[in-house]
Design goal:
The protein is of the alpha/beta class. Among the domains are: 4-266, TIM Barrel, CATH 3.20.20; 402-454, Double Stranded RNA Binding Domain. The protein contains 19 helices and 18 strands. Strands 2-3-4-5-6-7-8-9 form an eight-stranded parallel β-barrel, surrounded by seven helices. A three-stranded antiparallel sheet has the order 13-14-15, with helices on one face. Strands 16-17-18 form a three-stranded antiparallel sheet. Helix 14 (306-314) links the parallel strand 11 and strand 12. Helix 5 runs parallel beside helix 7. The protein is elongated, with a radius of gyration of 28 Å. The mean pLDDT is 91.
Length: 536
């Protein structure tokens, strides 16, 4: 059976940039466009040339090799011809392959926001599409607030869509701009548009996530006949975000309900890079990946309950809807005080630690984990610390270094102008290969000073830890009061793209931090030698 083509349109660089706290540089946009292009996205929308210096510079040359390079803008202004509209002119003159123009399709917005007549708005849509086509570029129209407009005045909303289509627009995109429509409404209205004479092969869907249903609404539109989906990487966007292409694409490619009927520009081979794409994008945003993201999250293929782990050992399909490797992710059987022997055996096997089921050290490890988690440790979220604990239990950790002690001082002083200044200083005493090393460092805070001092002089291992980077630091107070027990989780990484997490627990936040820091460095040295992280 011939499968129909679904076209993927990414608006991360334009609509995604509406996310609070997100502001892409030109270099960021170039890097992200390249990632999307390589992945197999059909259309990469880069922004609004002429609206700001960044977007203007970005559109000074074509930034994609395979994907259509799309510029966003508006239809001509009311009362101004397309030839004399400076905004439209800057779009036509850009290096874009296609132009996506936003048009009002709700008569309420036409009269209130635009301050013009419904007839003039329709004329603006028609004139703008014709101007784009005359320039040799592909034309698209985003019908803003289409679903709300259709519910208020279906005849006028349909007139906007039909005007764009009849003028020659390759795509007319139906936008749920306020994000409040429900999947059943989306499906019914898309069907109505197709029944009115606009083919689904020319219709797209642009859904916002204000009710948490942007992905569902996008798929409902596809079920009803639309053949283009607009969305963003990791679902970023204004307010609650846009439809998440990182969730939509694997659903289309892997789930039988869709893959037997449709095909996309993303092959199964490319899909294996989905997790890497998602995390590379988060890295550009300088934010930690969301662990519970479908398909690509660290928890997407993780299990904690012992009975689940036992079934996974027999057949992963018992608790996995797709193979984790199909999206570049991996299976994780967590160890915790809720885990049974199967969890531990699976976790040890994945790390290359061969253990017999009747090995008494296994019972000792399980008991230690349960005792330490009762004290506040969380090994399910600290893979490296668990592996170090396991290897210590089975006696396989070399004595690379030993910490003889540390001291941290925080001093509030005044500078030459009499302004208060807080300075943190740390001293760490290490023994490496029989040699005592004393390191001193100042930092932005006590933990930063401790980290700098610990890694300032690491003897023969200094070059090995040169690319070690702390990427995330989390503190959790486990009980109330000033004498509370504190848990610190530290995520680390290196230039090889490897990441790992360590944990420390103490009544003293500095001591807890030092435990996690020490484990991170030890794990890094072992990983360099192939003594840790095997299969993890």
């Amino acid at each position: 059976m011939t499968r129909e083509r679904i076209y993927l349109f990414d608006t991360t660089l334009r609509d995604g940039q509406q996310t609070p706290g997100v502001d892409f540089s030109v270099d960021d946009k170039i890097a992200i466009a390249s990632l999307l292009d390589d992945f197999g996205i059909d259309y990469v929308e880069g922004g609004y040339p002429g609206a700001n210096p960044t977007d203007t510079a970005f559109f000074s040359k074509k930034r994609t090799r395979k994907a259509a390079f799309v510029a966003f803008g508006m239809t001509r202004r009311p009362g101004v011809s397309a030839a004399n509209d400076p905004g439209l002119a800057s779009l036509v003159q850009s290096q874009a392959d296609a132009l996506c123009l936003v048009a009002k399709s709700w008569d309420y917005h036409v009269t209130v926001a635009l301050g013009t007549t419904p007839e003039e708005n329709l004329a603006g849509i028609r004139d703008s599409v014709e101007a784009v086509l005359k320039s040799g570029k592909q034309a698209m129209i985003d019908c803003e607030h289409f679903f709300d407009g259709y519910k208020a005045n279906p005849d006028y909303a349909l007139a906007c869509v039909k005007t764009a289509h009849e003028a020659g627009a390759r795509w007319v995109v139906l936008c749920d701009t306020n994000g409040g429509s429900q999947p059943a409404e989306i499906a019914r209205i898309v069907s109505d548009v197709i029944a009115a004479g606009v083919p689904g092969t020319c219709l797209g869907i642009h859904a916002h996530n204000d009710t948490g249903q942007a992905v569902a609404n996008s798929l409902a539109a596809i079920d009803a006949g639309a053949r283009q989906i607009q969305g963003t990487l990791n679902g970023i966007g204004e307010r609650c975000g846009n439809a998440n292409l990182v969730t939509i694409v694997p659903t289309l490619v892997l789930k039988d309900y869709y893959r037997t009927r449709f095909e996309t520009g993303v092959t199964e081979e490319k899909l294996a890079g989905l997790t890497e794409l998602s995390r590379a994008f988060d890295e550009i945003l300088n934010r930690a990946p969301y662990h519970q993201s479908p398909y690509v999250g660290a928890s997407a293929f993780a299990t904690k309950a012992g009975i689940h782990a036992s079934a996974l050992l027999k057949d992963p399909r018992t608790y996995e809807h797709v193979p984790p490797e199909s999206v570049g992710n991996f299976r994780s059987v967590m160890v915790s005080d809720q885990g049974g022997r199967s969890n531990f055996l699976n976790a040890l096997k994945r790390r290359g630690i061969a253990v017999a089921k009747d090995d008494p050290r296994l019972d000792r490890l399980i008991a230690t984990v349960k005792e330490r988690e009762a004290e506040g440790y969380a090994y399910e979220g600290a893979d490296a610390s668990f592996e170090l604990l396991a290897r210590r239990t089975f006696g396989t950790i070399p004595d690379f270094f030993r910490v003889e002690g540390f001291r941290v001082m925080v001093e509030r002083r005044f500078d030459a102008l009499g302004r208060p200044k807080t300075v943190s200083e740390a001293v760490v005493k290490l023994e490496i290969e029989g040699k005592t090393i004393l390191s001193v460092a100042e930092g932005d805070g006590p933990v930063n000073a401790l980290d700098l001092a610990l890694r300032k002089d690491f003897g023969v291992f200094q070059q090995e830890i040169a690319d070690l980077e702390l990427t995330d630091y989390k503190v959790r107070i486990l009980n109330g009061g000033t004498g509370a027990v504190t848990r610190v989780l530290i995520e680390s990484g290196d230039s090889g793209g490897r990441r790992w997490t360590t944990v420390g627990v103490s009544e003293n936040i500095i001591d807890a931090s030092f435990q996690a820091l020490s484990d991170s460095i030890l794990y890094k040295v072992m990983k360099n030698r192939g003594l840790a992280g095997v299969g993890a």
